[in-house]
TrEMBL record:
Source species, domain of life: Eukaryota
Keyword Transmembrane: yes
Organism of provenance: Mesocricetus auratus (Golden hamster)
Protein name as catalogued: Heparan-alpha-glucosaminide N-acetyltransferase isoform X2
Keyword annotations from UniProtKB, A to Z: Membrane, Transmembrane, Transmembrane helix
Domain Heparan-alpha-glucosaminide N-acetyltransferase catalytic: 263-385
Transmembrane domains' residue ranges: 190-211, 266-285, 305-326, 338-357, 372-390, 417-436, 497-520, 527-545, 565-584, 596-613, 633-651
Region Disordered: start-end pairs: 1-33, 235-254
Pfam families referenced in this protein's UniProt entry, alphabetically: HGSNAT_cat
InterPro entries per the UniProt record, alphabetical: HGSNAT_cat (IPR012429)
Lineage: Eukaryota, Metazoa, Chordata, Craniata, Vertebrata
Keyword Transmembrane part of the UniProt annotation: yes
Length: 659
């Protein structure tokens, strides 16, 4: 929105005194799979572009420069003009974000006293618009704050802070905030994109509903005969399949083809949802703050995806391993496959994903050791080995013998539960009781300017200390999300050593979901009851640990720490997702899982590919205005849609990357 001399002025006076899968065929699958594939790919790409190119303001059409004061605004900033109308007193204005817990105020501007009675001194400064701001004004007249304001600025808005005497002849100071120029609605592009995407999903679902009708499908079948291919591959990062990479050639071909494994499409769909969200937020998410990781405590959309991926990996481990062992593969050979796959995941993460080869060759001195694939590899190895060591055969008639009140899915895993509880006890003991030099014992904060700046080098407490002690600062992530608000200066890795314990717990909860699906197959009510029960149990644990507060709980929800409350909360959400997806996708056949099903089938390829080719066209190009949410959103949606399209084409060509 451009400025004008006749802009309306809105006065917001705020005065204050100082201080202060397996896929199972759904009904009419043959009909429902006809005709929608090519249309899906075309609609997906066209819709993704349309959603972001609609006439939605991303920023001003003219440069955001106050010519008099030479201030150019960037993304998520507004212009604040501070008017000092006090005679003989200079001002110092401090700022902090409402989202920054127990942070110290940071200097924003110094405004000298006015030289002439009729002409106040003015200072122009940019202010953040991501969260609410707290402004504190100090004058040279006193040591205490003259006034304090709380306000949520809008992007590219123009505001004036008037500091003046409350009335003539008094020493009381009043601070008034005036809106000179209204901000733009920077959330409009993402709202339009969401609505268009939702409309596409509804349209495709309606098309498939029509195709499920006999008369309509018979008419269509006369002209269109395309059918979806059967699944041919799987990975533990994918779902179990007839030819599992863990099994190798454990069974003769005749026996393998005669088996009819239990398949769940909702597992691939859930994995695809997590993966596509991961690609979108990793590419930038339109540069919106809620598509970035939380600075410390709390949750954003970006914080959901990795735990969900770990959870569904656990489900796939159990479903796949059970199928392999039932086919007679030896545990020793299976253990070798597990170890090799874990090794490959760790190597791919360290050598391929972590280094940025666009900046130069790999440097061993500064190579980041932890990472997403590295944590997946370690988590996969521990959980898969536990299931292999304590696996028990599941009789074919098991589902017929279980009642809704049976706990066989839990009691059959008591050795694994005992080991998991031991690991969690180790995490709690190290986190809460390990002495950290220069830091309070049990510290869970971000350091930096948090906690009133008392512990600036204590980022992550015991978790950060263990990583720096064992791996060294140079081998950790150098730009953690805590630097944004808390101005931390030490390296901290969100995929560090201590947090891996809780990712193992998360994966094992996914194993529990897989056991529910297998032990009670064909018993929809029993499955849904158990999913709902786990939602309630884990939700209550989260409420108790957090005390329904972002920062005041015993153990806050924290992605950087992978805290216990973070695992319980995200596992609760994961069980809820399965509670919705299982009946919709596998029981009622209301949704095929498209388009998320396709990337869910090729998860390793999509993840590694989107990391390696992130800076290459057509996934990224030079933007005309790199301070526009709209342009970033267009680029990120198109890049994400391209990976969905790639996974769809590879699926149709029966090309899958398995390790």
């Amino acid at each position: 929105m451009t400025g004008g001399s006749s802009s309306r002025r809105r006065r917001a006076e705020q005065r204050s005194s100082a201080a202060g899968p397996e896929q199972r065929s759904s009904p009419r699958e043959a009909a429902s799979n006809m005709g929608a594939g090519p249309a899906l790919a075309a609609l997906l790409l066209a819709g993704s572009v349309l959603s972001a190119t609609l006439l939605a303001p991303g920023r001003r059409t003219e440069p955001d420069i106050d010519e008099k004061r030479n201030v150019e605004l960037k993304m998520d900033q507004a212009l604040l003009l501070i008017h000092n109308e006090l005679l003989g007193a200079s001002l110092t204005v401090y700022w902090k974000s409402e989202y920054c817990y127990q942070c110290t105020f940071q200097p924003l501007a110094n405004v000298s006293h006015r030289g002439k009675p009729a002409k106040p001194s003015v200072a122009a400064v940019p202010v953040s618009t991501q969260h609410g701001s707290i402004l504190q004004v100090n004058s040279t007249w006193g040591e205490t704050a003259a006034c304090r304001l709380e306000y949520k600025f809008g992007e590219f808005g123009n505001y004036s802070l008037l500091v003046q005497h409350a009335s003539t002849g008094t020493s009381e100071i009043a601070c008034d905030l005036v809106v000179n120029e209204n901000p733009v609605n920077s959330n409009l592009p993402v709202s339009i994109a969401f609505l268009v995407g939702l409309a596409l999903i509804i349209a495709i679902s309606f098309l498939r509903l029509l195709l499920s009708l006999d008369d309509f499908s018979n008419w269509i079948s006369k002209t269109i005969t395309s059918r979806e291919t059967d699944r041919l591959i799987n990975s533990e990062l994918g779902s179990p399949s007839r030819t599992d990479p863990l099994s190798g050639d454990c069974q003769p071909e005749a026996r393998r083809t005669s088996a009819s494994p239990y398949r769940l499409r909702c597992v691939d769909t859930f994995r695809g949802i997590a993966l596509i969200l991961m690609v979108f937020v990793n590419y930038g998410g339109g540069k919106y703050w809620y598509f970035k990781h939380s600075s410390w405590n709390g949750l954003t959309v970006a914080d959901l995806v990795f735990p969900w991926f770990v959870f569904i990996m656990g489900s796939s481990i159990f479903l796949s391993m059970t199928s392999i062992l039932q086919r007679g593969c030896s545990k020793f050979r299976l253990l070798g496959k597990i170890a090799w796959r874990s090794f490959l995941l760790i190597c791919i993460g360290i050598i391929i994903v972590n280094p940025n080869y666009c900046l130069g060759p790999l440097s061993w001195d500064k190579l980041r050791i932890p990472g997403v694939l590295q944590r997946l590899g370690v988590t996969y190895f521990v959980v898969a080995v536990l299931e292999l060591l304590f696996s028990k055969p599941v009789p074919d008639s098991c589902s017929l013998e279980r009642s809704c009140f049976s706990l066989r899915d839990v009691t059959s895993s008591w050795p694994q539960w005992l080991i998991l509880l031991t690991l969690e006890s180790i995490w709690l003991a190290l986190t809460l009781f390990l002495p950290v030099p220069g830091c309070p014992t049990g510290y869970l904060g971000p350091g930096g300017i948090g906690d009133l700046g008392k512990y600036p080098h204590c980022t992550g407490g015991a978790a950060g200390y263990i990583d720096r002690l064992l791996l060294g600062d140079s081998h950790l992530y150098q730009h953690p999300s805590s630097t944004v608000l808390y101005h931390t200066e030490v390296a901290y890795d969100p995929e560090g050593i201590l947090g891996t314990i809780n990712s193992i717990v998360m994966a094992f909860l996914g194993v529990q979901a897989g056991k529910i699906l297998l032990y009670y197959k064909d018993q929809t009510k029993a499955i849904l009851m158990r999913f709902a029960a786990w939602c309630c149990i884990l939700g209550l644990i989260s409420l108790a640990l957090t005390k329904v507060s972002a920062d005041e709980g015993f153990i806050p929800i924290n992605k950087n720490l992978w805290s216990l409350s973070y695992v319980s909360t995200l596992s609760c959400f994961a069980f809820f997702m399965l509670l919705v997806l299982y009946p919709a996708v596998d029981v009622k056949g209301l949704w095929t899982g498209a388009p998320f099903f396709y990337p869910g089938m090729n998860s390793i390829l999509v993840y590694v590919g989107h990391e390696v080719f992130e800076d290459y066209f057509p996934f990224r190009w030079k933007l005309e205005d790199d301070q526009s949410h709209k342009e970033h959103l267009i680029q990120n949606i198109v890049a994400t849609a391209l990976w969905v399209l790639i996974s769809y084409v590879l699926y149709k060509k029966k090309m899958f990357w398995k390790i």
